[in-house]
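Hi team,

As requested, here is the filled-out complex form for the adenosine-5'-diphosphate run. I kept the field names the same as last time so the parser does not choke. Let me know if anything looks off before we queue the next batch.

— J.
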Amino acid sequence: MSRIHKLDPIVVDQIAAGEVVERPASVVKELVENAIDAGATSIEVILLEGGIRRIEVRDNGIGIHRDELLLAVTSHATSKLSAPSDLEAIASLGFRGEALASIASVSRLEVISRTANSNAGASLKVDFGRVGEVRDAAAAKGTRFIIDDLFAELPARRKFLKRASTEAGHCTAWVERLALVHEGIAFRIENDNRVVFEVRADDDLTARCAAVFGANIADRMLAIDKPSDVLSCTARIGPPETARRDARRVHLFLNGRWVRDARLLRAVREGVREFVPVGHYPTLFLQLHVAPERVDVNVHPQKTEVRFRDERIVFGTVVSTLRQCLAASDWATRAVGGIGSSVAESPSFGGISGLPPTSGGGASSSGGFAGAGTASTSAGSSRDFPAPSWQRADDLRDGAAGQLQEHLAQQATDGNLPLQPDPDAGAGDFLSIANTFLFRPVPGGVEIIDQHALHERVNLEELRKEIREGQVVMQPLLVPALVDLSRIELELLLGLKDTFLKLGVDIDAFGETTLAIRGVPARLQRLHPEKLVMDLLEIATDNRAASPEKIQEEMLFSMSCRGAVMAGDHVDRAALESLLKRGANLPQDRTCAHGRPVRIMLTLEDLERAFFRR
Ligand code: ADP
Ligand code: MG
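And here is what came back:
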């Protein structure tokens, strides 16, 4: 070991660069953010080999004055903060004054710039931290950065770079993110002479969403615009069927900055949980505006993590805003006519293959469950809907829908398919398949209902209503069910006794380590008391710090699910009919409590496509 000495400034910058510059995309992000801070209305990114060979960023912003070029590439030099108190309320994207110095220390950087009131431009080159001289250069108003051979002199870093196409993808992702939230600015990125992404300055948020998510999704996104002085919230949510297992389609922004915050993401999932299947993330653009002094963005060198001063309020608002808007949306409202009716409707989940709806809209509910076959209702609905060519409205049962139904019943009884025929299948106007799915012919196609999902949703809505009205009917158990627990567990549950009572669950201590369940909700007769206690315990443990309302909500979800028939359970026909009847008047009947679809529609178009008739 040698003696202690001060590090060479170039090495200092290279070490610092490790925090900011990870790959070409980080350079793109920093340079594009600088261009935004410089008031540009047009920003262009030009890559060669995914940015590994060259990254060029051009903007038409205010430019850098000739005398300040040197300072710009010096570390801790910035025009965005002056007094220490500025750190308390950061309004620009940059503020650390580190990016350019860092980039310049790990690449060959050239900056060419001209401010509005100078008639000549100037340029400066920095070669892996070795600063050149400022020279005259021809330049349009604005700034151009050219970054060549990133990490070329740092083989240890360079070897972490991926294939050019992968790096190009990361660069594009950053341009997309920044383009989503910066309306009024044109963005364009090309790689190896091919335009990969582009929006115009006058493109609005919808057009920007179309460019990022695809027009097909953007057209169907639900819009939330909730302005407020304290915390304003703008969001676009894609329809449930566009949910994905990873969060790549979730874009969260705080004050114009893309952020990656695990707790904010959790709030989002909480807000959409009834609309997005468990384990999935929605397609989402969410932008929050909070007064700058209420957040701290200075917690991470890449500024993608944030800390809120009053996070409970922020997260709470996100959850409730998403919930309210979704609950008021088409996805939540009962599909036209509801479960029990035979009125055609737009497929709630875009049909099997995500095709656009073929029918629906404008029809009024025909009321409850049409238990007595479809002929009468179809005659009624044929007035509202032009009868599809295959359907003879006067004789639906002998029409295609009836044939399909018979066909399915036939297949099921033939035993050629791994389906378990319901003894009564084909008798009424639905068919139970594999003790799981209910097939119902409806004008325009076939509706398929998941019996468990429907029952779960029915339980949830009915229980919610009872709780709201303060009249959950409790079924006292003749003999209390006893469950052995640890002292801590027992104490935890007893502490929530009142919350549970509101849900129709009556618990008591029975000795020091035994819990007695004295009553369960009458409506959920299928609930197994011991399983119920285990669920209660899990929820109480997971939500130690949560409010009683939150715990009650969790319980409600869990009980609705536990109290529902399962897929594969044989349910007799009368019970299924009654379930469909109960399903006819729900405030929402498209998804179960876990966000999975309750029903999907196979439109005639879907069928025709499947049989190559189209
Ligand atoms: P920061 O953005 O944190 O201030 P940077 O190292 O990214 O730090 O940039 C240093 C300074 O260079 C900025 O504060 C700004 O004054 C100037 N600058 C950088 N890029 C541009 C640009 N595209 N147009 C105008 N000025 C720029
Ligand atoms: Mg910057």
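Two things worth flagging: Confidence is low (pLDDT under 50) at residues 334-428. The first strand starts at residue 42 and ends at 48.

Thanks,
J.
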